[in-house]
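Hi there, hope your week has been kind to you so far. For a while now I've been wondering how a particular protein folds. I'm sending you its amino acid sequence along with the backbone structure tokens. Could you read through the record and tell me how the tokens relate to the sequence? Take your time with it, there's no hurry, and the full record follows here.
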Amino acid sequence: MKTLKSVGFLLGLPIILLLWWWLATSGAPNFFAPTPAKLLTTFVETWIGERLITDVLPSIMRLVIGVLAAIVLGIVLGLAVGLNRTMRAVTEPVFEFFRALPPPVLVPVLMLLVGINDGMKIAVIISGCIWPVLLNTIEGVRSIDPVQNETSRSYGISGFARIRYQILPSATPTIMAGVRQALSIGLILMVISEMFASSSGLGFTIVQFQRSFAVPEMWSGIVVLGLIGVALSFIFQAVERRVLRWYHGLKEVENAV
């Protein structure tokens, strides 16, 4: 019963939206709004085949590498800055300056510095994804309960052991909130980076469909992006449940009191 209820919550709204779309497009045909049946046929013909290898998988590979690199760099830098009050004061204005720069404006600069290749596209993704992880890590470290710090000092826990057993577990809920933001930013920047000086990838292909008035194919590309976003969300939720199982258990106990 519980499983059926979960499936109902998961699929209920998408089914309602599909029915609404089918009813809205079942009258006079509209060039800019294909019917669900037409879009499904176009989706299979366009993306199940060669384009899956030449466009979809390379885009996903660049997205995964860029997001993982941003997470690692953001956590390492965030720990270094968050644990040092002087470094935090020195770096805060610099971080605020670079965070305010929209990553798309860096694309021409990165094209000159890195070249027109996969490295440039990954660098664009990193330049946008690193900020939520970095700033949330700093905030997570800064807001650790002082009693925990005193307890660690009392027991002589220091260095890497303190980071491993006290700092990281305490800051992980805040870090995971930053990772969640980084995933959606990474997907957006993956598309934007492929719109500039590229000959393959989801962003490039969708723009080509739009410029050639291949409307159903363009919509099918947008559906692919949505499916990638849903898959990323499910993967993140699974990882979060495993990493933060102690945190969710603690919250359940607090709410039960």
User: Anything to note?
Assistant: Residues 20 and 99 are 40 Å apart (CA to CA). The radius of gyration is 23 Å. The longest helix spans residues 159-194. The mean pLDDT is 88.
